[in-house]
Each structure stands twice: as structure tokens, then as C-alpha cells.
Design brief:
By secondary structure, the chain is of the alpha+beta class. It has helices at about 10-30, 35-40, 55-75, 160-170, and strands spanning about 40-50, 50-55, 85-95, 100-110, 120-135, 135-145. Helices cover about 35% and strands about 35% of the residues. The relative contact order is 0.16.
Length: about 170
Amino acid sequence: MSQDQATPTYAEDRAAIEDLMGRYLFALDWNDFETFGQTFTDDAEFEYARGTAHGRDAIVETIRGFKERIGSIYTDEQGNPAILRHVLAQTVIRVEGDRAWATALWWEMANNGPGNAPLVGTFGTYEDELRREGGRWKFSRRRVLNEFLEGRGTGPDNPVLAMDARAEAAAAA
């Protein structure tokens, strides 16, 4: 649904999807793997720089391993695991019934700068497909793109137009 076709239901759906995105990031950054898993459908797909995980349980285990590796890469000046926080920036959401698509910019920072000051480390784009299950929105597919890694960026074209094309193709199918 385009912005000029927005309805009160769209506003409610958008608020619920934005809430889901926030819960995902808080769970990720605080190592709350149970809550993190609840943001995905049972059959979800999660693609990130190291590969693709299929199914909620596999996604949680993938992220658990990722978080362990990150703790050894991002360290503060004393050599302790740095505090890593992800931030969500502009987000475009398209809702079609019980399915939705979202494109959002993210960046992360950690206290691994001089004097343990925050330092922006990475940034990228989320490409999401969502499904409403039992009245709640969940990720059915999340693709994490990293603008700083070769072959993992969004490319030169506006990613929102690509999101709209995916949504229109799904609606036509």
C-alpha cells in the first residue's frame, strides 16, 4: 500500500511492525535469544553476511554464535567485550493484507573508540518480508545487507523501488 493510500489499519500495522523491529534490536543487543526468536515465524529465513539460516531455531542458534564471535572482535580499551548497540534509521513499510515488506537503514556502534567512546562500526540495509500470525507481525524473511562488505550492499538503485516490485509480484501471484 502506497503512502497516499494509507488507512487507519495501515497506521496500526505500521506501528506494530516498527515495534517488532525495535524488539528485534533490543533482544539482539541484550542477548535475549528467546525474545529474539519470537520475532520470527517458525519457517522464517534469515540471510546475513555469513550465510542463510532457515527456521526459527536455526536462526536463534546462528545469532547466538554470531554474538559470541562479535564479543571477541569488538573490545574496549581494557580488552573486555564492547557494548554493541544497533540503531534503526529511516524505514519504509508496505502492507498488503496479512503480508508486509519493509526496507530500513541500520547502523551499529560500540564503545570501542578512544577512551571507550562510542564508535560507529558498520551500517547497512534490512530487506524484510513479514507475515501476520495470530494477530501479530513477525519476520518471515530478513535479509541483512552490509554496505561496507563487497557483494553485500544494496547497489546503486533505490532499494525502496525494489521492495515495491517484490510486493507487487507477490500480490499478483
